[in-house]
Amino acid sequence: MKSRFDHDMTMDTIMRRWPGTIRVILDHGMLCVGCPIASFHTVSDAAREHSLDEDKLIDDLTKEMK
After folding, report:
1. Of 11, 24, 41, 54, which is most buried by a Cβ count within 10 Å?
2. Alpha helices, DSSP H, located in 1-66
3. With left for phi above 0 and alpha for psi between -120 and 50, is residue 21 left, alpha or beta?
4. Is 30 inside a domain boundary?
């Protein structure tokens, strides 16, 4: 069983653990796939960097974390 989402997880960890989240990330206009910073940025960091609503991003990501 895959572990649950944790706010300290990096974007890279999230995409590797739950590949379905890649589509969500791309749909939000983020280019985290292949980005060298993805292994350092948390969801909060990425949302802030891309001027996105963090709660909406987390909600959309967690829907894909099955």
Report:
1. 11
2. 11-17, 21-27, 43-49, 54-64
3. alpha
4. yes
